[in-house]
Amino acid sequence: MQYGWTYLVPVVAVAGGITLAIFSQYFRTKRSIAEAEGSPSLREALRVSNETSAELLGKLNSVDARLSAIEKTLNEVA
What are the pLDDT digits (tens) for 8-20? Predict the structure, then answer.
């Protein structure tokens, strides 16, 4: 049993390698998110997208109101 600890070295090395890979991927993802959030072109694209969504929502609300009026009229006729 004098060489029992030598079997522990590869196990610790594998566990350390896996831990290192996990932390490396975690910080790489954090860095890419931070770079993307600071991008002026991304902010501009999001602003344009939000404006477009707001316009579409307004148009859909007006279509819904018109359809409600048509439905009311059809219910009165029937």
Answer: 888 889 999 999 9
